[in-house]
Design a protein that fits this description.
The structure holds two protein chains of two kinds. By secondary structure, chain A is α/β, with parallel strands linked by helices. In chain A, 33% of the residues lie in helices and 29% in strands. Chain A has helices spanning 2-32, 95-106, 126-138, 155-158, 171-176, 190-198, 232-242, 302-329, 337-344, 354-357; strands at 43-53, 60-67, 85-92, 109-111, 117-121, 147-151, 205-211, 214-220, 228-229, 248-254, 257-275, 278-293, 362-374. In chain A, strands 1, 2, 3, 4, 5, 6, 7, 8 and 9 form a nine-stranded mixed β-sheet that branches. The mean pLDDT of chain A is 88. The relative contact order of chain B is 0.23. By secondary structure, chain B is mainly alpha-helical. In chain B, a hairpin with a 4-residue loop joins strand 1 (263-264) and strand 2 (269-270). Chain B is globular and about 55 Å long. In chain B, strands 1-2 form a two-stranded antiparallel sheet. Classes of the chains: A alpha/beta, B mainly alpha. The A-B interface holds A 23, 27, 30-31, 33, 35-36, 113-114, 141, 143-145, 177, 189, 191-192, 194-195, 198-200, 339-340, 343-347, 349, 354 and B 37-40, 113-118, 122, 125-126, 129-130, 133, 169-170, 172-173, 175, 177, 181, 243-247, 250, 257, 260-261, 263, 265, 270-271.
C-alpha cells in the first residue's frame, strides 16, 4: 500500500513539475517574438541616404547606399574601394515612399536603423530640408545618431567609404566622429538638428561640404526661403560664439614677420537682457592657444606675448562680428539667443510660432580675452 | 481571521518600494509635466515629491500606531469592518486600473520598438502570467526576487543615465522660470502620481519588517520615498537637458528617445538603450507580482479565501483591464486626465481622514519604538 501511495505521490509531483515546465516554455516562447524577425538575406542595411532635387518639384531623388555583402576580411584585398558599396536610386515624393520603392527594386527590406550619414543637396529649399528631417525622425526605427550634411555638388559624390575598414565607414562618419580633426566642431547629428528645428528661438545649422572631403562651412536654415551658407571665417566666428572651437589655428602678420597660433580652444559666457528693439546680448569669449611659429628675429618676451594676445583676440572678434552681421542681415539666429531667453520666460513661448521666434532681432556685444602660451624651444 | 505575518528584512522593504520607480510608468515620464510647466518642471516635481513623502509619512505613522499587518487593517481600526471593506475595494479598483493602463502602455512600447507584428496581449499576458506565478508564492519569495533583481536593474539604468549625460546640451532649459504659473504647477504635480502610487501601496508591508536593531520605520519609508524621488528627478533633468522643453513634448516615449541617442562606437554598440528594456520588463513583472500579492493579502485579511487561486483571479482582472484599453492616446488621456487626479485625491482623503479618526477615537495600540 505504501509503495502504491509513494508511486502516486511521485506521479503527482511529476505532473506538477511537467505543467510548470510547459508553462515556462510557453511564456519563454511567447517572449521571443521570433515571428517578428526578418532573416538577414531579406534585409538590406543602408549606410547612407542622399537626397537631391529632380526636374519636377514634387519628386526627389533618393539614393540608398549599401555595404556590398561580398565585403569580408578575405575579399578586401581584391576589392577596390568603389566596389565596397552599391547604391539604389529612386524617385519619390517622400522618404517613406522612397524606402518602399527601394524595397521593390532590391526585393529586400531596406533597413535604415544602422544608417551613418544623411546628405542632401544645397539646392533644396529650407522647407524641403525641414520635411526631410521630420520624415526621417518619424520613420519608425531610424538611427537618430546619424550625421547630417549638405553638399554643394552631387550628394552621391559625398558618400564614399574610407579605406581599410572591414565594415565600410563613410568619410563623413569618420571625420565627424573625430573630435581632434575638426578645428570647429561642425558635426551635427540628426537628433540635434531635429531638436533645433522644434525649439523656438534658434535656427538649425548644418555642415556643408564645399568640395570632395572638405567640410569647413555651415549652412543656416531659416524656416522659409533659401538656406544661408556662411564663409569659413564666418563659420569660425559662429564657432567662437558657441564655444565650439576646440582645435583651431590662426595666422597674422607683424612687422617682424608671420605669426601662427594653434590649438585654440574657446568657451563663451552670454548675458542676455530684453530691450524694446530686440535682445541685448553680451558675449564674453575666452580663448586660449599656443604660439606655434614666430620669426627667429623676434624673442618672445612677456610684453610681446601680451601684444600677440591682443592681435589674436582682435582677429577672433573680427570673425565673430562677421558671423553676427551675416546672421542679422539674413534674419536667422544660429546662436540661439532667443531660445535661452525663452527658457527663462516659458509663458512667452506660445505667443509666436517657432518660425517667428527664429527671426526675432538681437544685438550682440562681443568681448574676447585671449591667453597664449609658447611651446617648444625658444630659439 | 488571523493573518500570519511573514517577516521581511528592512532591505527587502526598501527595494520593494524602489522597484516602483523603475516599473511604474517611468517610460511615460516626464512628458506630461514638461507639457504643463516647461522649465518649471523641476520645481513642480520637487513639490510633488514633498507631497508624496508627506503621504508616506502619515501612512507609516498609522501603521505603527495600529500595528495592523496591512493597510486594510488600519482602515478596520478607524472605520470598522464595513468601512474597511468599502475602502479596500475602492483601493483595489484604483491600483488595478493604474496598473492596467501602465501595463497596456508598456505593451505598446514593446510593440512599437520590437514586436511590430505581435498582438499587444502576448506581451502584457506574458508579464501578468509570470507575475501571477511569482505572486502565488509566499511574500518572502516575492520580496527575495525583488531584492535580487531591483539593484541590478537600477544599476543598469544608472549606467545608461551616465552614458547619456554627454548628449546633454540644453542646460539653459533647466533653470526655473519666475513667476510660477501656480495652476499649471498643480496639474503638473498631479501628473506625477502614477509613478509614486506604488509606494503608497507597498508601505502596507511596513509591519512585516523585522528589525535586527532599533526599529526606524519612519526613516526607512522616507529613505525609500526619497530614492524614488531622486531617480524621478534624474530622469527629468536628463530629458530636459538632452532635448529641451519644446521637443520633449512632441515625443511619445521621451525617455526611450534619450536612451536611443547613446552610441558607443568603440564597442560596436549603437542604441545601447535597448538594454533598458530588459530591466524594465523584469521590473514590470515584479511590480505586477507585488501588487497582486498585496491585493490578495488585504482581501485575505478581511475575508479569507484561497490565496493562490485569488492571485490568478486578480491577474485575470488586470489583464482584462489591459485588453480593454485602446490606443496609446486613449491610455494617456485615461491616466493623466482621470486616474491621476482621482487616485491622488482618494489617497489624500483616505489617509487624512483615517488619521483624524484614529486620533479622535484614540484607538489603536501604540507600539513602542
Amino acid at each position: 500500500v505504501t509503495g502504491a501511495r509513494r508511486a502516486a505521490s511521485i506521479r503527482r509531483r511529476f505532473v506538477t513539475w511537467a505543467i510548470g515546465a510547459m508553462a515556462v516554455l510557453l511564456v519563454a516562447g511567447g517572449c521571443t517574438g521570433c515571428w517578428d524577425q526578418l532573416p538577414f538575406y531579406e534585409r538590406a542595411l543602408a549606410l547612407a541616404i542622399t537626397v537631391s532635387p529632380t526636374k519636377t518639384r514634387s519628386d526627389w531623388h533618393y539614393t540608398f547606399v549599401f555595404a556590398n555583402p561580398a565585403v569580408t576580411i578575405s575579399s578586401l584585398g581584391q576589392m577596390s574601394s568603389a566596389d565596397q558599396l552599391f547604391a539604389v536610386s529612386v524617385k519619390a515624393p517622400t522618404l517613406s515612399q522612397a524606402v518602399g520603392r527601394a524595397d521593390k527594386r532590391l526585393s529586400r527590406q531596406v533597413y535604415i536603423g544602422q544608417l551613418q550619414d544623411l546628405v542632401w543637396s544645397a539646392k533644396m529649399p529650407s522647407s524641403a530640408a525641414y520635411d526631410l528631417i521630420l520624415a526621417y525622425n518619424r520613420h519608425g526605427l531610424t538611427a537618430k545618431t546619424v550625421f547630417v550634411a549638405v553638399t554643394a555638388g552631387q550628394p552621391q559624390d559625398a558618400v564614399k567609404p574610407t579605406l581599410q575598414e572591414v565594415v565600410p565607414d563613410m568619410f563623413l562618419t569618420k571625420y565627424f566622429s573625430c573630435r581632434g580633426c575638426q578645428p570647429v566642431t561642425l558635426s551635427e547629428k540628426e537628433w540635434e538638428l531635429w531638436i533645433t528645428m522644434e525649439t523656438p528661438g534658434v535656427s538649425p545649422v548644418v555642415p556643408i561640404m564645399s568640395g570632395p572631403n572638405t567640410v569647413d562651412e555651415v549652412t543656416v536654415y531659416p524656416n522659409k526661403g533659401e538656406p544661408v551658407t556662411f564663409t569659413p571665417e564666418e563659420t569660425r566666428g559662429w564657432g567662437f560664439l558657441l564655444g565650439r572651437v576646440h582645435n583651431a589655428a590662426l595666422g597674422f602678420g607683424m612687422p617682424e614677420g608671420r605669426i601662427a597660433v594653434d590649438r585654440i580652444e574657446a568657451t563663451v559666457a552670454n548675458h542676455i537682457s530684453w530691450t524694446p528693439t530686440g535682445l541685448a546680448v553680451r558675449a564674453e569669449v575666452r580663448a586660449q592657444g599656443m604660439v606655434a611659429e614666430w620669426p627667429p628675429t623676434m624673442p618672445l618676451t612677456p610684453q610681446r606675448i601680451r601684444k600677440l594676445e591682443t592681435l589674436a583676440a582682435r582677429k577672433i572678434l573680427h570673425e565673430s562680428l562677421a558671423a553676427v552681421r551675416r546672421a542679422q542681415t539674413t534674419h536667422t539666429d544660429p546662436f540661439g539667443y532667443w531660445r535661452d531667453y525663452l527658457y527663462q520666460h516659458p509663458s512667452l513661448m506660445g505667443q509666436k510660432t517657432v518660425a517667428e521666434w527664429d527671426q526675432m532681432p538681437y544685438h550682440v556685444h562681443v568681448s574676447v580675452t585671449m591667453s597664449l602660451i609658447e611651446t617648444g624651444v625658444n630659439t | 481571521v488571523s493573518d500570519p505575518v511573514e517577516p521581511i528584512s528592512p532591505g527587502q522593504f526598501y527595494w520593494t518600494m524602489v522597484v516602483g520607480v523603475v516599473a511604474a510608468g517611468i517610460y511615460l515620464w516626464p512628458q506630461y509635466v514638461i507639457s504643463q510647466v516647461g522649465s518649471d518642471s523641476i520645481v513642480s516635481t520637487v513639490a510633488s515629491i514633498g507631497v508624496y513623502l508627506g503621504i508616506l509619512f502619515v501612512q507609516s505613522r498609522l501603521l505603527k500606531r495600529t500595528g495592523a499587518p496591512t493597510l486594510t487593517g488600519v482602515f478596520k481600526v478607524a472605520w470598522g469592518s464595513l468601512g474597511a471593506f468599502v475602502w479596500m475595494v475602492l483601493s483595489i479598483v484604483m491600483v488595478l486600473s493604474v496598473d492596467s493602463v501602465l501595463l497596456a502602455l508598456y505593451g505598446d512600447l514593446l510593440k512599437t520598438f520590437f514586436y511590430s507584428m505581435t498582438p499587444r496581449v502576448v506581451m502584457t499576458g506574458s508579464i501578468v502570467v509570470v507575475g501571477c506565478w511569482l505572486a502565488m508564492r509566499s511574500l518572502s519569495v516575492v520580496v527575495r526576487n525583488v531584492q535580487f533583481w531591483t539593484p541590478i536593474s537600477v544599476a543598469g539604468v544608472v549606467l545608461l543615465v551616465v552614458l547619456a549625460i554627454p548628449n546633454a546640451r540644453e542646460w539653459g532649459a533647466l533653470r526655473p522660470a519666475w513667476p510660477f504659473d501656480w495652476g499649471s504647477m498643480a496639474y503638473a504635480g498631479m501628473g506625477t502620481w502614477f509613478i509614486f502610487a506604488n509606494g503608497s501601496v507597498v508601505v502596507g508591508l511596513l509591519n512585516h519588517v523585522s528589525w535586527a536593531k532599533k526599529p526606524r520605520a519612519g526613516l526607512l519609508v522616507l529613505l525609500g520615498g526619497m530614492t524614488q524621488g531622486i531617480v524621478v528627478l534624474a530622469f527629468l533633468v536628463l530629458v530636459i537637458a538632452n532635448l529641451g522643453t519644446a521637443p520633449a513634448v512632441e515625443l511619445t516615449w521621451p525617455i526611450v528617445y534619450v536612451f536611443e541617442l547613446i552610441t558607443l562606437r568603440s564597442f560596436f554598440i549603437a542604441g545601447a538603450g535597448a538594454f533598458v528594456m530588459l530591466a524594465w520588463s523584469i521590473m514590470m513583472v515584479l511590480i505586477t507580482a507585488i501588487h497582486l500579492s498585496l491585493v490578495s493579502e488585504n482581501v485575505e485579511f478581511l475575508a479569507g479565501g484561497p490565496r493562490r487561486l485569488l492571485v490568478w483571479l486578480w491577474g485575470a482582472i488586470l489583464l482584462a483591464g489591459t485588453v480593454s484599453i485602446g490606443t496609446i492616446v486613449d491610455a494617456k488621456v485615461l491616466l493623466f486626465d482621470w486616474l491621476n487626479p482621482i487616485y491622488l485625491g482618494f489617497v489624500v482623503f483616505l489617509v487624512g481622514s483615517t488619521y483624524v479618526l484614529i486620533l479622535i477615537r484614540g484607538t489603536g495600540r501604540s507600539r513602542s519604538g
